[in-house]
Amino acid sequence: MTPETAGEPLLRVEGLKVHFPVTRGLLRRRVGAVRAVDDVSFDIAAGETLGLVGESGCGKSSTGRAILRLYAPTAGSVRLEGREISRLDGRELRALRPRMQMIFQDPQASLNPRMTVGSIIAEPLREHTGMGREEIRARVQELLDAVGLARAYASRYPHEFSGGQRQRIGIARALALNPKFIVCDEPIAALDVSIQAQVVNLLEDLQEQFGLTYLFISHDLSMVRHLARRVAVMYLGRIMELGPRDPLYARPLHPYSAALLSAVPSPDPELEARRERIVLRGDVPSPRHPPEGCVFSTRCPKVFDRCRREIPALRAAGQGRRVACHLVEPEGEPGPDIQQRRSG
Question: Do residues 3 and 43 make contact, with C-beta atoms less than 8 angstroms apart?
Answer without folding.
Answer: yes
